[in-house]
Amino acid sequence: MSLKSGSFPSSAAFDAINSSLQSDDAERKDAVKKGNAIFAFKLKNKEGQEEAWNIDLKEKGAVGKGEAPEGKKADVTLSLSDEDFGKMVAGKTQAQRLFMSGKLKIKGDVMKATKMEPVLKKAQTKAKL
After folding, report:
1. What kind and span of H or E run contains 117?
2. What digits encode the pLDDT tens for the residues 59-87?
3. Which of 61, 65, 74, 111 can pair with 40 through a Cys bridge, CB separation 3.0 to 4.6 Å?
4. 8-state DSSP, 1
């Protein structure tokens, strides 16, 4: 099942993150150990539409659509534009810079949000944005 959404070009990164997590059992376990949270990403495209994806680094080490896996709650929610998410995953900008400029809003445990960067870095090599 593809996580990509046609109206959100950067959403292809969620497929890349998922395949990165699923391809190596040891890396997935390491990511879950380091992340220890459910991360929600709320993206807004140029048309003003919003969609959400989640990365479960608490139990499964998997990516899904929606703000959290069924019956679970996100520990951290990151809200930003589709364009800025694409830049962040491509390594063209840093989450901290987006946060400081007000382009990235974080709800929940801000310290856990910092644990997301290494997972996004792994996706950089796989995502063609």
Report:
1. helix 117-126
2. 999 999 999 999 999 999 999 999 999 99
3. 74
4. -
